[in-house]
Design goal:
alpha+beta, 5-stranded antiparallel beta sheet, globular
């Protein structure tokens, strides 16, 4: 399953923080909204000057012909990505007592 990581050069974590695990359908929806740049097979390096960025990790066996295995950096800022993640999470977890068909 595709993963989104949030990265900030001030954190003591060279690999960022896992923010979301997506289905392939959710990932395709995300990629239709935001552009990404292929960063390669290794997690993108961070510096202490980085203001924060989001990274998408696509794993083997999940891809179609358009995407490669590896890491992708989003061109959008963290706030834009987080807004999409929050919308995605709400759609997965409807309000208690509410039917999905409502």
């Amino acid at each position: 399953m595709p993963n989104i990581y949030y990265c900030n050069g001030l954190a003591n974590n060279d690999l960022g923080i896992l923010r979301a695990v997506l289905s392939w359908e959710e990932c395709k929806s995300l990629l239709n909204l935001f552009s990404v740049q292929y960063a390669g097979f290794q997690f993108p390096a961070m510096t202490q000057r980085d203001q924060g960025f989001a990274v998408l990790n696509l794993l083997k066996g999940e891809l179609d012909d358009k995407w490669r295995v590896g890491f992708y950096s989003f061109d959008a800022g963290l706030l834009q990505i987080e807004e999409w993640v929050q919308t995605c999470v709400v759609s997965r977890n409807p309000t208690p007592g509410r039917k999905l068909a409502d």
